[in-house]
Design brief:
alpha/beta; Rossmann fold; 7-stranded parallel beta sheet; 6-stranded parallel beta sheet; binds uridine-5'-diphosphate-glucose
Length: 481
């Protein structure tokens, strides 16, 4: 039996910038393969995207972020869902409460929306695609007889760590009070990883928190997915991918970027904050002379370290753009730069609260990226061949640093010697910015960049994997009806 109607998938994303961006690009990719997509943004994401576009709307006005995509011929519908808190609820200041609601209250709102789609959508809803970090996907998919696709926005290596949480636990490397210094060599598809390179949450000694309940649920949810989509590239991470594929169908379909990257003003707005345009300033700077500094969208850094980075940038004498969020060091109090800093750097630096990162790192004036090693920033930097000075803060960033510096050798560690000093910052920035074309680091970057480009080329691995996924999904749906 074949189905004539297009596949209809509902896509759910988290209220986090680093997850919304790849989820939107995934939705566009699936729609471009003929899917009907209902993309569900949280109300908070929707409000922030709308605000960042400076539209004059009230909370109830639904500005459909996919309208241009639809005009371009894609069947993407747009809905919003409450996460169970009033829109004014500050997630950053009440994280425990938020995570509890995420697991216990949010699912009721999701259920209501999915039920409505199941009852009325045309073409009929057949598939639920959701970020892997929810706790309710498999139950809702099962209830409505939908195929469940888990979407992983981080490297496959990190997926594998969460997937094998039970192994880590049995061996005393998770949820254990021993601070063992061993190298972990028993996870299928991971040759060796040191404890310090595990995702920060897996190194916690207090695992009674909501975050740890969520981690445990995530690990279980992954195993009940019909399919797993991962924003990575097979050739870069084939060992963990092949090991997972022995258990479940996993497809590396990354990097998930705006369609037609040459024009970063994509069909669909993805930014949760207003963007400051840096391109005019960059146009005045010589090629490769500017360091881009950004630590992602929400994790704060210790004030002492940010102060050392500020002084180190001063000492380095390098041009730089620094995305310094108001909450760079704390959600309670805005960060204040050392006195006199802005006067001293005014001819060679630009400090902004948010920008269009792709516009910045694709600019020829950029010569390096001081990054927190978020996975999106990492993929974007590789795509544009920008060398990275790695300063992971938390979460998977510690593991991504290992990939960049130890495995692929395309990044430099910022903090080798603890504590971080301004002198180390200045020294490493200068080393990074003076890297020559024939240096090993740059040669390795060219190779890794080519792997990413090949993956997205016609008949490249990510393209093939996506087509394979669509075909396997169709078969699964036929099996289900
Ligand atoms: O001024 C800025 C700064 C960032 N970005 C974009 O924001 C995204 C940031 O994503 P990422 O680099 O992954 O960092 P986080 O926001 O910290 O992302 C979270 O989500 C990622 C994917 O799951 C994880 O790898 C990170 O550790 C986690 O903190 C990227 O696409 C950037 O291009 C901008 O557009 N403008």
């Amino acid at each position: 039996m074949t189905t004539q109607k297009p596949l209809h998938a509902v896509v759910f994303t988290l209220s986090l910038q680093g997850h919304v961006i790849p989820s939107i690009h995934l939705a566009i990719k699936l729609a471009s393969k003929g899917f009907t997509i209902t993309f569900v943004n949280t109300e908070v994401n929707h409000r922030d995207i709308t605000k960042s576009l400076c539209r004059n709307t009230s909370q109830n006005d639904v500005v459909d972020i996919f309208s241009a995509a639809r005009e371009a011929g894609l069947d993407i519908r747009y809905r919003t869902v409450s996460v169970g808190f009033p829109i004014s609820f500050d997630r950053k200041l009440n994280n425990e409460q938020f995570l509890e609601g995420h697991v216990h209250v949010f699912p009721a709102h999701v259920d209501e929306l999915v039920r409505d789609l199941v009852d009325s959508a045309d073409p009929p809803l057949t598939c639920l695609v959701a970020d892997s970090f929810f706790g309710w996907q498999s139950a809702i998919a099962k209830k409505y007889n939908l195929v469940y696709v888990s979407f992983w926005t981080e490297p496959a290596l990190v997926f594998s760590l969460f997937y094998h949480l039970d192994l880590l636990q049995i061996n005393g490397h998770y949820a254990s009070h021993d601070n063992r210094e061993d190298t972990i060599e028993y996870i299928p598809g991971i040759k060796a990883i040191e404890l310090k390179d595990l995702v920060s949450f897996l190194q916690d000694t207090d695992f009674s928190t909501s975050m740890h309940r969520l981690i445990s649920m995530t690990s279980k949810e992954m195993k009940s997915a019909d399919f797993i989509l991962c924003n990575t590239v097979h050739e870069l991470e084939f060992e963990p991918i092949l090991a997972i594929q022995e258990q479940q169908p996993m497809y590396a379909i990354g990097p998930l970027f705006p369609s037609g990257l040459s024009n970063s003003k994509t069909l669909v707005p993805t930014s949760l904050k207003p963007e400051f345009d840096c391109t005019q300033w960059l146009n005045t700077k010589p090629q490769g002379s500017v360091l881009y500094v950004s630590f992602g969208s929400f994790i704060p850094c210790e004030k002492k370290k940010i102060d050392e980075i500020a002084h180190g940038l001063l000492l380095s004498k390098i041009n730089f753009i620094w995305v310094l969020r108001g909450d760079a060091v704390s959600y309670e109090e805005p960060y204040v730069l050392p006195s006199g800093f802005e006067d001293e750097i005014k001819d060679r630096a630009l400090i902004v609260t948010w920008t269009n990162q792709i516009d910045v790192i694709s600019h020829s004036a950029i010569g390096g990226f001081l990054t927190h090693c978020g996975w999106n920033s990492t993929l974007e930097s590789i795509w544009y061949g920008v060398l990275m000075l790695c300063f992971p803060l938390k979460a998977d960033q510690l593991t991504i640093r290992k990939l960049l510096v130890d495995d692929w050798r395309i990044g430099v560690n910022l903090c080798d010697k603890k504590p971080l000093t301004r002198f180390e910052v200045a020294e490493k920035v200068n080393v990074l910015m003076s890297t020559k074309l024939d240096d090993k680091l740059r040669k390795e970057m060219i190779k890794v960049r080519q792997i990413l480009k090949n993956a997205l080329a016609e008949n490249g691995s990510s393209e093939r994997n996506l087509c394979q996924f669509v075909s396997d999904l169709k078969n699964k749906i036929i099996e289900k009806v």
